[in-house]
Amino acid sequence: MEKAHIYITRKIPEVMLQPFQSAFSFRMWEKEDEPVPREILLEEVRNADAVMCVLSEKIDEEFFLAAPKVKIVANMAVGYDNMDIQAAKRHNVILTNTPDVLTETTADLGFSLLMAVARRIVEANQFIKKNQWKNWSPLLLAGTDIHHKTIGIVGMGRIGEAIARRAKGFNMDIVYHNRSRNKEAEERLQAIWLPFEQLIQEADFVVSVIPLTDETYHLFDELAFKKMKDSAIFINISRGAVVDEGALVNALESNQIRAAGLDVFEKEPIASNHPLMNLENVVCLPHIGSATKETREKMMALCLENIDSVLRNQGPKTPI
Ligand code: 8YV
């Protein structure tokens, strides 16, 4: 019998495929410095029974029409704003994501970014490497305190909660906004639910961990930045499009807020001439929230386990 065929849209280590090689045939996009072009993707999935993809691939009506045999699309991410769930239902295709395995790693990165911005770590590193350290002076590279400040977490899901646990260790006051109340975080971490408007006015650090949906698109807009403290630090580790980037640039340029730390952008990869790149009070990262070797291996393994399970008619492990 012919083996079921799996297409993988990014190069992953061969060793990850070994446990599945006797059961399935694989093809993957091998180039590491460019994404698979859309027309090649649509051609490749024509005979695929399953697809493993990343966030940059739009899994939409056009995709499903091009992939008539596909039974499952496994997204190597917890977020799935790249996938059209209604279209998947219409075509009877199972969608999966990678929750839980990346929670702590992404929270570590979020907190690192917050600390890097508050304590000006990146500037300080540049300063010393550019041989600018000539003297000690009291306000040299003085940042702002983290401990005992108020962190405002927008989106109190798994990652939001993991950030709140870290904040607790720094003796921060925790306020959060979420559609539904998170009683566990309220009891265990003394986190206080606030309406969004109030949170952005009260928080010293506003951290976006909220998924991108029609409701959260450009949630952080001109008005939101106006309402924040002028000493506020804005951190985004969720999706770029929850922020109106033009409004953020204006807010940073006009010192409406102090600084920002961004792991995500409206268009990724972001252009090197984007106005955000010229601002000194911004630390930018190339969407590396879950990027540790351990966690990326767990994410890849979970995608493959989901595919294996569905193709063996045993159902998905982490369905969307
Ligand atoms: C992914 C992410 O690694 O899980 C998510 O939603 O944003 C990251 O962890 C990245 O999106 C690649 O797909």
Automatic annotation (TrEMBL):
<dbReference type="Pfam" id="PF00389">
    <property type="entry name" value="2-Hacid_dh"/>
</dbReference>
<dbReference type="GO" id="GO:0005829">
    <property type="term" value="C:cytosol"/>
</dbReference>
<comment type="similarity">
    <text>Belongs to the D-isomer specific 2-hydroxyacid dehydrogenase family.</text>
</comment>
<feature type="domain" description="D-isomer specific 2-hydroxyacid dehydrogenase NAD-binding">
    <location>
        <begin position="111"/>
        <end position="289"/>
    </location>
</feature>
<keyword id="KW-0560">Oxidoreductase</keyword>
<dbReference type="InterPro" id="IPR050223">
    <property type="entry name" value="D-isomer_2-hydroxyacid_DH"/>
</dbReference>
<dbReference type="InterPro" id="IPR036291">
    <property type="entry name" value="NAD(P)-bd_dom_sf"/>
</dbReference>
<dbReference type="GO" id="GO:0030267">
    <property type="term" value="F:glyoxylate reductase (NADPH) activity"/>
</dbReference>
<feature type="domain" description="D-isomer specific 2-hydroxyacid dehydrogenase catalytic">
    <location>
        <begin position="7"/>
        <end position="319"/>
    </location>
</feature>
<dbReference type="InterPro" id="IPR029752">
    <property type="entry name" value="D-isomer_DH_CS1"/>
</dbReference>
<protein>
    <submittedName>
        <fullName>D-glycerate dehydrogenase</fullName>
    </submittedName>
</protein>
<dbReference type="InterPro" id="IPR029753">
    <property type="entry name" value="D-isomer_DH_CS"/>
</dbReference>
<dbReference type="GO" id="GO:0051287">
    <property type="term" value="F:NAD binding"/>
</dbReference>
<dbReference type="Pfam" id="PF02826">
    <property type="entry name" value="2-Hacid_dh_C"/>
</dbReference>
<dbReference type="InterPro" id="IPR006140">
    <property type="entry name" value="D-isomer_DH_NAD-bd"/>
</dbReference>
<dbReference type="InterPro" id="IPR006139">
    <property type="entry name" value="D-isomer_2_OHA_DH_cat_dom"/>
</dbReference>
<dbReference type="GO" id="GO:0016618">
    <property type="term" value="F:hydroxypyruvate reductase [NAD(P)H] activity"/>
</dbReference>
